[in-house]
Design a protein that fits this description.
With 374 residues, this protein is of the alpha/beta class. Helix content is 33%, strand content 20%. The strands form three sheets. A seven-stranded parallel beta sheet has the order 5-4-1-6-7-8-13, with helices on both faces. A four-stranded mixed beta sheet has the order 10-9-11-12. The protein has a two-stranded antiparallel sheet with strand order 2-3. Helix 4 crosses helix 5 and helix 7 packs parallel to helix 9. The protein is globular, with a radius of gyration of 20 Å.
Length: 374
């Protein structure tokens, strides 16, 4: 294995994996000091975008399993923006176990592969994968836990981009610590998405002394993720994750009846575009009312790809330094439901400290009111 590389495995070859892989190609020649939209640094801790090498990939659908990863990222139902050409990778997408990873709506549109399920742990070891990224669909609790287990067995760092609570769960944190491998999670924040925007506005209200009385965030989109979330039972963890990401910015949690955050509907013609509507109602000086409404439209998967590139590089730094368990600073900056919630400015500062090698600053110090790390 060449020195200075970051060997990454992808669990789920959907739109997010497509945007991630396209991003590696798009910024492959970026200079070390070149500012790149969506990345903290072109050179993060000595690792540049071109140092990231995809070494393994897993999926369950017939259109993707057995194909070169460069072809699989454009197979149906993927429909994200194509912004870069991806050369053949030489990586064949392996058949992972389905478990609860395929919802009933999506399963009516795609066919499961009949290829035998791979030995995931062996595949990770054989490919020398160092960081495993979970891009599983919303609601895939069993599948997420399965791949977390395999990462620990193979000695891989784990980046949990989906809303199953692993890094934020004390038991799973202990297990990763005991296995001697790091985890960054849970539930990726986008570059400028609905959650980060809502968090910043909520923090603005708090810092300027406005009492936030009621708020909602309604999201619609046309990709497979939104189609999966038509099953309300698959939506539970996503709704919790998005709600606590916003609620955590307040000193006193809001009454559950006064805060509503979560995906609302699937509109197929939107494709991988996502539309968010946010409303905030508050009380200002002299009990004067204040309200704010906004609409945000983004390409959902490219919006998170750069964040994952940074998270992957931070996970590799944690491996290099022999760290294990939850990597607190980067988790707080990159994820909606980290082990500890900070303001975004504090989370950014802690992540920069981590990158610079200050591991104590990464994990110590005060949190927002009511936030603890068990």
């Amino acid at each position: 294995m060449a020195a200075g590389t970051v060997r990454v495995g992808l669990v789920g070859v959907g739109n997010c994996a497509s945007a991630f892989l396209q991003g590696l190609s798009f910024y492959e020649s970026a200079a070390a000091n070149e500012p790149i939209p969506g990345l903290m640094h072109a050179d993060l801790g000595g690792y540049r975008v071109r140092d990231i090498v995809v070494s393994s990939a897993f999926d369950v659908t017939d259109a993707k399993v057995g194909r070169d990863l460069a072809d699989a990222i454009h197979a149906a139902p993927n429909d994200t923006l194509r912004f870069a050409e991806v050369a053949p990778t030489g990586i064949t997408v392996a058949r992972g176990p389905t478990l609860d990873g395929l919802g009933r709506y999506l399963s009516a549109r795609v066919r499961e592969s009949e290829t035998p399920v791979a030995d995931v742990t062996e595949a990770l070891k054989r490919s020398e994968t160092e960081v495993l990224v979970s891009y599983l669909p919303v609601g895939s609790q069993k599948a997420a836990e399965f791949y977390a287990e395999r990462a620990m067995e193979a000695g891989c760092a784990f980046v949990n981009c989906m809303p199953v609570f692993l890094a934020s769960n004390p038991d799973w944190r202990r297990r990763f610590a005991q296995a001697g491998v790091p985890i960054i999670g849970d539930d990726i924040k986008s570059q400028v998405g609905a959650t980060i925007t809502h968090r910043v506005l909520t923090n603005l209200f708090r810092e300027r002394g406005v009492r936030l009385d009621r708020t909602y965030q309604l999201n619609i989109g046309g990709n497979a993720d939104f189609e999966n979330m038509l099953e309300r039972e698959r939506l539970v963890s996503k709704k919790i994750s998005k709600t606590q990401a916003v609620d955590s910015q307040l000193g006193t949690p809001m009454d559950p009846d006064d805060i509503h955050i979560g995906p609302s509907d699937h509109v197929p013609w939107l494709g991988d575009r996502k539309v968010a509507h946010i409303r905030m109602e508050g009380t200002a000086f002299g009990n004067a009312p204040i309200s704010l409404e906004m609409r945000l439209e983004v390409w959902d998967s490219p919006n998170s790809a750069g964040i994952v590139i940074d998270a992957v590089r931070c996970a590799k730094l944690a491996l290099d330094r022999g760290l294990s368990g939850a990597v607190v600073g980067p988790s707080s900056y990159f994820m909606k439901s980290p082990p500890r919630q900070f303001t975004d400015a504090e989370a950014h500062a802690r992540t920069e400290a981590f990158i610079a090698g200050d591991e104590e600053a990464d994990a110590s110090g005060p949190t927002l009111p009511g936030q603890t790390l068990q």
